[in-house]
Amino acid sequence: MAHQGEQFMSTKSRESQRVARHRRVRKKVRGVPERPRLAVFRSLRHISAQVIDDVSGKTLCAVTTASKEFRAAHPDAGNVQAAAKAGELIGKRMKEAGISAVVFDRGGYLYHGRVKAFAEGAREAGIEF
């Protein structure tokens, strides 16, 4: 029995909790050829995303702040401004690939901070979701 004021420690790590949330969301979110899935991954230093057609299992286009071309233009890649630029870049690449609408897969992360900035950057580039 815990004493007054003691906190119970979770037995699951934050990453395993995020993966469980992601699996729960993925039960409903599915990318089809007409409207592929825009999946986001966020690490401490970078953010990356890929546009996936789940029917064929193919990645149609991708972007990461860890790439040399992105780092040359934006040396600090782990902040909200870099996430917004990455969103604009993936939006541009999707337009070049002929994709105008996607379903957004936030990967189990809260729609806040860098994930939100990335999504808004893609929307500013003309992508609908």
Shape: globular
* Assembly annotation: single chain
**What is the first-to-last residue Cα distance?**
48 Å
Q: Main β-sheet, in a few words?
A: 4 strands, mixed
Content of β-strand: 15-25%
Secondary structure tally, helices: 4
Structural class: alpha+beta
Mean pLDDT: 92
List the helices and strands and how they pair.
Elements: H1 14-26, E1 37-42, E2 47-53, E3 58-64, H2 68-73, H3 80-96, E4 103-105, H4 114-124
Parallel strand pairs: 1-4
Antiparallel strand pairs: 1-2, 2-3
Q: Could you describe the 3D structure shown?
A:
With 129 residues, this protein is an alpha+beta fold. The chain has a single domain (31-124), classed as Nucleotidyltransferase, domain 5 (2-Layer Sandwich). Helices cover 36% and strands 18% of the residues. A four-stranded mixed β-sheet has the order 3-2-1-4. Helix 3 runs parallel beside helix 4 (114-124). The radius of gyration is 17 Å and the shape is globular.
Short key terms for the protein model shown above:
four-stranded mixed sheet, 129 residues, single chain, 18% strand, alpha+beta, Nucleotidyltransferase, domain 5, 4 helices
Question: How is this structure best summarized?
Answer:
This protein has four helices and four strands; from the N terminus they run αβββααβα. The chain is an alpha+beta fold and 129 residues long.
